[in-house]
Design goal:
With about 625 residues, the protein is α/β, with parallel strands linked by helices. The chain has 3 domains: about 250 residues, Aminohydrolase, N-terminal nucleophile (Ntn) domain (Glutamine Phosphoribosylpyrophosphate, subunit 1, domain 1), CATH 3.60.20.10; about 180 residues, Glucose-6-phosphate isomerase like protein, domain 1 (Rossmann fold, 3-Layer(aba) Sandwich), CATH 3.40.50.10490; about 140 residues, 3-Layer(aba) Sandwich (Rossmann fold). It is built from 21 helices and 25 strands. The strands form 4 sheets. The chain has an 8-stranded antiparallel β-sheet with strand order 3-2-4-1-10-9-11-15. It has a 7-stranded antiparallel β-sheet with strand order 5-6-7-8-12-13-14. Strand 23, helix 19 and strand 24 form a beta-alpha-beta unit. Helix 3 crosses helix 4, helix 10 runs parallel beside helix 14 and helix 10 runs antiparallel to helix 18. The longest helix is centred in the C-terminal third of the chain and has 21 residues. It binds fructose -6-phosphate (F6R).
Length: about 625
């Protein structure tokens, strides 16, 4: 999730690119950079000064001293390689005549960079992007035009990308290509622009076009030509955009939380990318652990807070079932005060979207003191936990701006499921064919989550029907229990309504005393292991007058007949079900909060990153 911008035919390309990058800052800003087409070839400046990166780039670039017409720019959210000047985009080829900016993930970059290095190319960054510049360099050295060389490069790379490339051989031309990651082009008189997102283009373009997957664009001042990868010219899709800048940053959604919930299918597929081989094996080379170290593990502890803790609870079921490892899961703020029994054969997994939560960081330090192996699952490259852990598995949700965790929570569950399957593969507790079958089901999750998001208006109707209720219970069993906890947390934090999450079998041991006519019970009733027992628990609360809303699988009439309202979801493997089942609960919380008139992006009393104990 980076912001990219390109321009040709501008009166002052530097100023245009800087303005565009500021408009794209919500895509991340751990570093930034610009490459300009000057009379002496490509001139590149980069900076990795965090929130001031774009300002630093502007200051450095001003030293050029004269305006130029074309260039590209980038504001980065690190996925491969820590935030540093060397890893900041644009990346250059060996000759410095080609510059590339990229948003996305190039899955086969390790293989390609080994190959390029063996041929004598000098790669200077840890990024997945740099290989693109060198592959294009090879193409142009073979006599291809910039466009021809980009086309040949696209045949070699696999993954998700939005790319914009310039070469000093054709200074007026920008070449762009798209696979999954978004890319838009803007045309106005004598000028043309490219960007990852509409906000970058809003000020200058009179016409805006969206590139589709598998399309390549050639952009000259005032002119856009789009073709397929095979080289056939195609008509670009024109976009009618009447958004304000703020609306454009949210891609037309009312708030960031809505946008981020709708980004979940893409966030899941980005998190899966490159971590499964076509032969049906899990590949987690990037964790920095070698397999022998992981084979030594006898026990796993998961430590986390809030929504990350709920993702950790799901992991307990997956790790115990598939990898046959005993797992303890702890609220990070309690962990180090209870004298946990840790040693070098213990794997401690810290789960934290920010990678900075003090409670989780301190829990990991406690584990480090006892020589445990530390793995962190985080969304922020080079965060404190990522630096201190022995191994890291990054979620690739991109920046999350809404305070309530949505896409980071789903991608944490995905990363943890991958870890569980990897350990099962390593320990031989699953047959290769079983791992391959589970991988197929993992790959189907983005589409299933998409189906749930498409049911949003039905969820909104359910939310509105209970908008006057103040007391909610969320119940579930087995993996439905962490989903119930997460559903209750989402509702509490953004709508300020009372919501309790409970394992359904526990109700009869006390909480059922609170159930009375008018109480709403939300039951996670998809067909996971203890569905029939959960139905008995639903009958208990119905008998006491509760209104029951169930999350149920499409077509499950038996569940529908036992409850008052249904939030429908597609069926999946029971241990993957939380990834799908939690989505209608996010939507329910969202629409209840909106019905009460709350600002869902900035809930009261909460902060996105909690660095106090
Ligand atoms: C809930 C939420 C919080 C965080 C918790 C941990 O929507 O966002 O409960 O999950 O503060 O934060 P991280 O994951 O950054 O450690």
């Amino acid at each position: 999730m980076c912001g990219i911008a390109g321009v040709t035919g501008a009166s002052d390309a530097l100023q245009y690119l800087i303005d565009s990058l500021f408009r794209l800052e919500y895509r991340g800003y751990d570093s930034a950079g610009i490459a300009l087409q000057t009379s002496d070839g490509i001139w590149r400046v980069r900076a990795a000064t965090g929130t001031t990166s774009i300002k630093s780039v502007k200051k450095l670039a001003d030293e050029l001293g004269y305006p130029v017409a074309a260039g590209i720019g980038h504001t980065r959210w690190a996925t491969h390689g820590r935030p540093s000047e060397d890893n900041a985009h644009p990346h250059l080829d060996c000759s410095g005549r080609i510059a590339v900016v990229h948003n996305g993930i190039i899955e086969n970059h390790v293989l390609l960079s080994d190959e390029l290095a063996a041929e004598g190319h000098e790669l200077t960054s840890e990024t997945d992007t740099e290989v693109v510049a060198h592959l294009i360099e090879d193409g142009m050295a073979d006599g291809l035009s910039l466009t021809g060389a980009v086309r040949r490069c696209l045949e070699r790379i696999r993954g998700h990308y939005a790319l914009v490339v310039i070469s000093s051989d054709e200074p007026e031309l920008l070449v762009a290509a798209r696979s999954v990651s978004p890319l838009v082009a803007g045309i106005s008189k004598g000028m043309a622009t490219l960007a990852s997102d509409i906000p970058a283009l809003l000020s200058h373009a009179t016409e805006i076009f969206a590139l589709e997957d598998g399309q390549l664009a050639e952009v000259w001042p005032g002119k856009l030509v789009v073709s397929s990868l095979a080289g056939d010219t195609v008509l670009p899709r024109s976009l009618q955009v009447n958004w304000t800048l703020e609306e454009a940053k949210r891609e037309g959604f009312e708030d960031y939380m809505a946008k981020e919930m709708h980004e979940q299918p893409r966030a899941i597929s980005d998190t899966l990318l490159g971590r499964m081989s076509p032969q049906g094996r899990i590949i987690l080379d990037e964790t920095r652990f070698d397999d022998d170290e992981l084979r030594e593990v006898e026990k796993v502890f998961v430590v986390a807070c809030g929504s990350s803790y709920h993702a950790g609870l799901v992991a307990k079921y997956a790790l115990e079932h598939w990898a046959r490892l005993p797992v303890e899961i702890d609220i990070a703020s309690e962990f180090r005060y209870r004298d946990p029994v840790l040693d070098s054969r213990t794997l401690v997994v810290g789960v934290s979207q920010s990678g900075e939560t003090l409670d989780t960081l301190m829990a990991m330090r406690e584990a480090a003191y006892w020589n445990s192996k530390l793995l962190v699952i985080t969304n922020v490259v080079d965060s404190s936990m990522a630096r201190e852990a022995h191994g890291v598995l990054y979620t690739r949700a991109g920046p999350e701006i809404g305070v309530a965790a949505t896409k980071t929570h789903l991608t944490q569950m995905i990363a943890l499921e991958l870890l569980a399957l990897y350990l099962a593969q390593l320990r031989g507790t699953l047959y290769p064919a079983e791992v391959a079958a589970l991988i197929e089901q993992l790959n189907a999750l983005p589409e299933k989550v998409q189906h749930v998001l498409e049911e949003e208006s039905a969820v909104k109707e359910v939310a509105l029907s209970v908008a006057s209720v103040r007391d909610f219970f969320f119940i579930g069993r087995h993996v439905g229990f962490p989903v119930a906890l997460e559903g209750a947390l989402k509702l509490k934090e953004i709508s300020y309504l009372r919501a309790e999450g409970y394992p359904a079998g526990e109700l009869k041991h006390g909480p059922i005393a609170l159930i009375e006519p008018g109480t709403v019970v939300v039951a996670v009733a998809t067909r996971t292991r203890l569905w029939d027992k959960l139905m008995a628990n639903i009958a208990e609360v119905k008998a006491r007058g509760a209104t029951v809303i169930a999350v149920a699988n499409y077509g499950d009439q038996e569940t529908a007949e036992a409850v008052d309202q249904v939030l429908w979801v597609p069926e999946t493997n029971p241990l993957f079900a939380p990834v799908v089942d939690v989505v209608p609960l996010q939507l329910l919380a969202y629409h209840l909060a909106k019905a009460h008139g709350h600002d869902v992006d900035h809930p009261r009393n909460l902060a996105k990153t909690v660095t106090v104990e």
